[in-house]
Design goal:
The chain is α+β, with helices and mostly antiparallel strands and 436 residues long. It is built from 15 helices and 14 strands. It comes from Gossypium stocksii.
Length: 436
């Protein structure tokens, strides 16, 4: 009687099973290493950096005495899932929320006194500034939302809950003689259901996903913004022709159903081209009255609230990177002028642009922020950085933009898949057992 051959099959399966597990583990280890290399992660042992100054000052004292992780805005807590076991065992002392974004700071002094600029990962430059008035600290802090996290071509538009890709809250802080000012702007992908599938072409086709819930998605998005920030002005910087034009037209059509939100269409490429930064005044003229009514947050050295920001500007282009950063820096400059005039540093006829050294530092800070945000989403430096730094396109900047554009093409097609997997993996970690 012959032995059954099936019994022999058991032994080859063991190494096969182990090798499969090892392959899976190796893949997850590679994802973890990619997670460890995630740029722009910040934390604080003392202050909740996920919450903007206005909200933090208005929270009850009982709230601010809670552990940091309980104070944190869950939208911006990057390591939320990684903290679950620590939270379960009530290890509050060891629970530190991580924020993805960037923090950049300028220390502004009288003439001939040094200023230290911290750009992202503690990169320092020392120079001298001349500024009317007392020493001042100027800070940019950007917070990336984790609700629709992902990379450029792999995360577009909104989900059914109204959360959008590349949603970032940017806070501009000014500290001067005990006074603290805060102004907020936000950016986020066009809040429709749409995608742009990578297909090796330089600019893959945009596809609007027809869905019966599209109006509700847009409404949910802007209702959430109203609850958090007040009245919203939606500034759409996309082109009005081609694929972008179709997407912009669909966005405009949905916005007509929301009378409480002002929608402003501004074809950045048509009006500003590649070098006319000053033409953003055309946009500002359209929104200046409401923009100035929205105001900014101001608190004195005794903690008394003197001004509150009552609304928000929401800007977008297709990627919410290059055109968006140029536009936000322009509006931020307008806000800074208003604040410095309010605090008596400038007269009513003086502006930051009249002080060349300070103006260069302000613009450099915004350009560096644009680069950091772009690195996180697209994997390259921002395009149009020269418009922010110098107000015009330079030859060197043109070459740099070309190299960055080619790098984006490579990243989108050959590298962003693993970066997208990393984003999904750290937001919802799974084990080998759960894979089976």
């Amino acid at each position: 009687m012959k032995k059954p051959k099936a019994s022999r099959l058991f032994f080859p399966l063991v190494p096969l099973l182990f090798s499969t597990v090892k392959r899976d583990e190796a893949y997850f280890m590679s994802l973890l290493k990619t997670v460890e290399a995630t740029p722009g992660l910040y934390y604080s042992y003392e202050t909740d950096i996920t919450v903007n100054l206005q909200r933090r000052c208005k929270l009850m004292e009982a709230w601010t005495s809670k552990p940091l992780w309980k104070q944190a805005d869950p939208r911006f807590v990057w390591n939320k899932h990684l903290l679950e076991e620590l939270i379960e065992y009530k290890l509050d002392r060891f629970i530190i929320p991580l924020l993805q974004g960037n923090i950049l700071k300028l220390l502004l002094y009288h003439a001939f006194e040094p200023i230290c600029m911290c750009v992202a990962c503690l990169s320092f430059q020392v120079t001298q500034l001349k500024l009317n008035g007392s020493p001042a600290t100027f800070t940019l802090l950007s917070r990336r939302c984790t609700r629709r996290l992902g990379t450029r071509m792999w995360r577009r538009g909104a989900n059914l809950e109204g959360d959008t890709a590349n949603f970032i809250e940017t806070e501009q802080l000014l500290e001067l003689e005990g006074f603290r000012c805060s102004s907020l702007q936000i950016r986020g992908s066009i809040p429709l259901l749409w995608e742009q599938i990578v297909d090796l072409s330089y600019k893959p086709q945009l596809r609007i996903i027809q869905h019966e819930q599209t109006p509700q998605v847009v409404e949910r998005h802007f209702n959430d913004l109203y609850q958090r920030y007040g009245e919203t002005i939606a500034v759409d910087l996309t082109d009005k022709h081609g694929d972008e034009g179709q997407l912009s037209a669909a966005y405009a059509e949905e916005m007509q159903k929301l009378p409480n939100v002002r929608y402003v269409s501004f074809d950045f490429h048509h009006v500003c081209g590649s070098s006319n930064f000053a033409n953003l005044q055309v946009l500002y003229d359209q929104i200046s009255e409401e923009f100035e009514k929205q105001g900014y947050f101001l608190i004195d050295k005794n903690g008394k609230i003197l001004e509150e920001q009552k609304g928000i500007i929401r800007s977008n282009c297709i990627d919410c990177l290059d055109r968006t950063n140029v536009t936000q820096s322009y509006l931020a400059q307008k806000t800074l002028d208003i604040q410095l005039q309010r605090l008596g540093v400038f007269t009513s006829t003086e502006y930051i642009s009249m002080f060349p050294e300070d103006y260069v530092k302000f613009r450099t800070l915004w350009a560096e922020q644009g680069d950091e945000i772009s690195l996180e989403y697209a994997g390259t430096h921002a395009l149009k950085g020269d418009l922010v730094r110098y107000g015009k396109q330079t030859v060197a900047g043109f070459i740099k933009d070309g190299m960055s554009a080619l790098s984006r093409y490579y990243m989108n097609n050959f590298h962003d898949g693993i970066r997208q997997a990393r984003s999904l993996f750290h937001l919802s970690p799974i084990s080998i057992k759960e894979m089976k």
